[in-house]
Model the fold of this input.
Amino acid sequence: MIDLSRLTATQIRDGIADKLFTAREVAEAALGRIEALDGQVHAFNQVTAELAYAAAERIDDAVASGVVLPVLAGVPVALKDNMNLVGTRTTCSAAILEGHESVYDCTAVHRLLEAGALPVGKCNMDEFAFGSSTENSAFGPTRNPWDLDRVPGGSSGGSAAAVAAGMATLTLGSDTGGSIRQPGALTGTVALKPTYGRVSRYGCVAFASSLDQIGPFAKTVEECAVALGAISGKDPMDATSVDRPAEDFTAALHEGVRGLRVGVVTDLLEAEGCSAEVRDSISAAAEVFASLGAEVGEVELPSTAHGLSAYYVIGPAEASSNLARFDGIRYGRRAEEAEDVLDLYMRSRAEGFGPETIRRVMLGTYALSAGYYDAYYGQAQKARTLIKRDFETAFSRFDVLLTPTAPTTAFRIGEKSSDPLSMYLSDIYTIPVNLAGNCAISVPSGLGAETGLPIGLQIIGTHFAEAVVLRAAAAFEAAVGFDPTPPLVREVQG
Done:
């Protein structure tokens, strides 16, 4: 059987085109890996074998007909369970949406499948994307393939774990405050958050509409570049998607970083909770860039100190509005008994929403309530403007910025469950990027000297500078030579 963990997306596509193996064999290999490993990891809420085999048949028919294959032909992909795809359930890992059938396709997912990908399943997540550990799922936690006693990060933890364990070659996640990059760091995968508006959000269940963005996970930077090219572009169904010409994000991928201006964000390195091994890893990463010919300097982003506070007003406020539709009438679970319509709403939500969802909806509703709007939501938006200006100033001096992706390596399951503030601090480095709308990537920078677990380097770019960010990430990736194979996969490979 094909060992997909040793093949990139491009190698899979080329292997099928050259008739070294068939798309059907690739689907069988991916589904076999899921069957062998997901009982331990729980990256998937649903496995979609029929859809994968149907897509594989179309690819094999195209090969037989001599048709030029699209860029992701035969590549196994999985989707975060907040993205609609006809023929699948879209649950957001929430009890209130258990069994909900997708009635239309998410645009990013549709574009991925148009590029020839094979959909193997829907991935576990924190309920409604509220969390940093994938423990807040109504269907149980996902475990990190590097250590099954630890979290894979969140909220896109299932998508990250599926790639890390070799159960999918590419996955899609959504990132509102770090939900792609932080799990990427904790699982040793490459994880890209595009600029706000680069990728359509249509068909992805909204958390915070001014912050959400869809992006890919992969083992390599090049695969993320290919995936971004496939899913990006204007969508008439999403008014916030930006009308920009299509780009080949692989064109300049391997041009190196000589002369590139790289800024190390020094004040964020001193942020609360940053472990010594993470801080040392980022300092070492700066030295790598200098050795590759980049011009490395230091920069501060003083207003990002308010990022966490601003985010936990803006995010819950928008979530409160977006989740109002889940009322037990139009969508999802409905309470069996109720005295009147108000009681129906209350019972349905109490039964269908988990504790973290309730906490955030209440926070957001309070922040938007009469008498508190200006004091909380208005002030948070002002802080957001200051953070955006700090980034603009920094990008007048530097092409990319470096920070840790997460302040620590993967923590143990249950370690932070009873301390929401400690959990929220997991996203302290990623949240400012969402508030400013910039693009950023997390790329593995090595294993922690103390924990032996993956550490992520965050490379941040200004708006629509994905090509520069990807080029910097590719140069760093090549210089470091990180092996993305976790112990669980090594055991399977023997």
User: Anything to note?
Assistant: The chain has two domains: 4-264+278-301+390-493, 305-383. The longest strand covers residues 439-447.
